[in-house]
Amino acid sequence: MTARIGGRCGFVLTNKVKTIVTPTIIPRSEHIISRSNISENAVKVLYRLKQAGYQAHLVGGGVRDLLLGREPKDFDVATDARPEDVRSIFRNCRLIGRRFRLAHVHFGREIIEVATFRGADSDGAEGKRKIENGMILRDNLYGSIEEDAKRRDFTVNALYYNIANFSVVDYARGMQDLKAGTLRLLGDPEERYREDPVRMLRAVRFAAKLGFSIDPACETPFSTLGQLLADVPTARLFEEVLKLFLGGSALQTFEKLRHYGLFGRLFPATEASLTREERDFPIIFVSRGMENTDTRVREEKSVTPAFLFSVLLWEPVRQLAAELQEDGTSPLQALQLAGDRVLSQQLEVVAIPRRFSTPMREIWNLQHRFEYRVGNRPHRLLAHPRFRAAYDFMLLRSESGESDPQLVAWWTRFQAVDSEERHRLTKPPKGRGRGRRRKPKRTDR
Questions:
Q1: Above pLDDT 70, what percent of the chain?
Q2: What is the CATH number of domain 2-187?
Q3: Quick one: average pLDDT of 402-420?
Q4: How many CB atoms lie within 10 A of CB 27?
Q5: Thinking of the domain 265-369, which architecture would CATH place it in?
Q6: Mean pLDDT over all residues of the chain?
Q7: Active site includes 148?
Q8: Under DSSP, is residue 441 helix (H, G, I), strand (E, B) or coil?
Q9: CA atoms of 394 and 401, how far apart (whole Å)
Q10: Confidence (pLDDT) at 138
Q11: Active-site residue, from 65, 76, 139, 177
C-alpha cells in the first residue's frame, strides 16, 4: 500500500517504510544559476567541503531566488558533514543553536550558514529530537540529503544546487511550483504548523516577498491554528517580526497578515484599535508607516526596530492617551502612561529588548513637545538625540491626517534655516513675553 504525502510532494510512505521518489536533476544547461551570482565566500565553503570529501549543496532561499533571477539576501549550505567536522575544516567557524545545531563560517561581516542534512524519525532518536504537543523543541537528528529535503518547509525551498556538477536537485517538484508562483508546504499542513507555528508567518512573508499565492490547503489552517503562535517564545517572535517587516514588502505583509487573522496574534492591541473608524474613515497610520518602511529599504536607508515598533503600537497608545486626557490627565503624562501600559501588554506576546523599547517611548513622548514653538523649547528639542526619529514619526502622523500640516511645515523650516533665523522664529510675539515686571508698591513709612 502506497500513500502520497502533501499532495504533489515527492515523498511516499510504503508499508510505513520511508522511501524517496527519484529526484529530478536539472543540469547546468537547463537553469540560470551561475557561480558568478553566488557569494564568493559561499563558493569557497562549498568547494572546501567538497575537497574534504563531503557533499556540498547551496540550498533554500538562495537557490530559489537565483532561479527567479533575484539577488539572494544570504546563502545557506547543506552538507553531510557534522557540525564538528565543519568546525575542523574552517578555523573561522562557530557552532551555534540548541534547537538546530548549525555552523557559522565567518568572512568579515558575511556569515555563511552550514547545516548538516537533517534526518527523519527513527528509533533511539529521543535524545536528539524533542517534541512537545506536536511542536519541535530540539532537532539535531542527522540524515541523508533525501531525508533533509523531506524536512524542508516549502517545496520551493527544497531545491539544492550541487557544486559537484552545478546541477539543481529537486526532490519535491519545487521547480513546478516556482514556475507556477505557488507556495506549498511539504507534508500535511496542519501537522507541519503544529511542529512549528512560525511556518504560518513564513508562508505569509514568502508570499508577500515573492508575489506568490499560497496553496489553499496551506492557508486554510491559519484561522484555526493561529492561536499556536502564543506557544512560540516571545524572543523568537521578535526576530520573526523583523523579518516580516524589514524585508522590503512590509505593506503587503501587513495586509496579508490581517487578511489571514494573524496580525492580531502578534499585535492584539493594534488590531483592536485598527477596527475603529475616526470621522467615518479607517485608520491608515500603520499602512503609511509600512509603505514608508518599504521606501527606505528600497533606498537602502536604515530602519531601526525602535521606529518600526513605535509605528506598529502607536494607534493603541494614542487612543489610550486620549481616553486618559478626557479623565483629566495632562497630555504628556497621558502619553507616558499609555505608552507604558501598551508596551507592557505587548511584551507578553513579542519580546522587545530594552535597547529598542526605550527609544520607542522617547519617540512617542516627544510628539507632545512639537506643539511648543516659542522660547527655548524648540532649540532644546532640536538638540535631542531622538529628534530626527520623532520628526519622521510626526511626518507620518501628518500624512495620515492626524498631525497638523502647518506644524510639520514649521518644524521643517526650523531645521533648514540658520541659528539667527531660528531665534527669530521662536521669538515670542509682542505682548506675549514672560510678562512685565511689576513695580513694587510704594509704601509710606
A1: 86
A2: 3.30.460.10
A3: 94
A4: 10
A5: Orthogonal Bundle (1.10)
A6: 88
A7: no
A8: coil
A9: 11
A10: 47
A11: 76
Do 393 and 367 contact (CB within 8 A), yes or no? yes
Q: Are 117 and 78 in contact (CB under 8 A)?
A: yes
For 286-299, what is each residue's pLDDT tens digit? 999 999 999 999 99
Q: What share of the chain is helix, strand, coil (3-state, %, to 5)?
A: 50, 15, 35
| 444 catalytic residue (yes or no) | no
In the chain, where does the domain assigned CATH 3.30.460.10 lie? Answer: 2-187
Measuring CA to CA, which residue among 103, 128, 120, 107 is closest to residue 49? 103
| Longest alpha-carbon distance in the chain | 119
Instruction: Please tell me what DSSP assigns to residue 28.
Output: G
**Residue for grid cell 533533509:** 148
Q: What's the CA gap between 10 and 21, in Å, rounded?
A: 6
The count of other CB atoms within 10 Å of the CB of residue 403 is: 17
Q: What is the pLDDT of residue 341?
A: 97
* CATH 1.10.3090.10 in the chain, residue ranges: 265-369
pLDDT band of 437, cuts 50, 70, 90? low
Angle ∠(60,61,65) on CA atoms, nearest 5: 130
Q: Tell whether the model's pLDDT for residue 385 goes beyond 90.
A: yes
Task: Classify 172 as helix, strand or coil.
Answer: coil
pLDDT tens sequence across 301-333: 989 999 999 999 999 999 999 999 999 999 999
Cell of 299: 533606498
* Residue 229: count of CB within 10 angstroms of its CB: 19
76 is a catalytic site residue:
yes
Tell me which residue has cell 557540525.
Answer: 83
From 65, 80, 153, 196, active-site residue: 153
- The number of helix segments (H) and strand segments (E) in the chain equals 21, 17
Q: What is the pLDDT of residues 236-263, one digit of tens each?
A: 999 999 999 999 999 999 999 999 999 9
CA angle at residue 367 from 271 to 267, to 5 degrees? 15
CA-to-CA distance for 122 and 141, rounded, in angstroms?
9
